[in-house]
Amino acid sequence: MTSLAKRHYQRVSAAQAARTTGDEPMHGDAFHLMHAKLLEDYRRLKSVQSVERKIQLKRELLPNYGDYVAGVLEAGRGAEDEVLMRVMLWRIDVGDIDGALPIARYALQYGLDPGEQFQRSTPAILAEEAADQALALQEDDDHLLDALIEIERLTGDADMHDPIRAKLHKALGNGHRARGELTEALPHYQRALELNDRVGVKKDIERVERALKQTSGPNA
User: Repeats (TPR): which ranges (predicted)?
Assistant: First the structure.
């Protein structure tokens, strides 16, 4: 079987399995094959001590799951799926928040559980992990900011610890500020401070307020 044909088969098989499973826990040959691969890859990752190397290895592994994920998202009806949720988290881990979003939309639409090993809900994991990545990257990236804006919208009504949401607002403030959108940045910094006074935005608020006053002029 050629590589292209194999990829097509994986996607179609995953879609069929997801469609047949409905909202029961995911099963079928396509799932079991990917789940076995996930366990193997997880063991490989556990054997690596370097965080940098773990991230590099995840980048190498993720393409192997692409067709399975595409098939599930195409035809899925909300089956609990450990493979799908792990791929979402790995994409965030490697800084590919854009790539995690299609899975996040699906997971939140159907209220999928992240798994027993996690002590946070799916919305909380998505908000915190994405915010942590954005704060670590410190990049002026329009795609990253757009992804954070969508994550805030997707998780806005979810219950989560205040420090998690505070980090998300801080990351949003940084993104708007990097884009030069100071009037949009300020409310996010202020909300982050309201939620957690140790989130580290007091200086950011002062700088943004000072810049806005200078922009508005002495007679404003």
Answer: 166-199
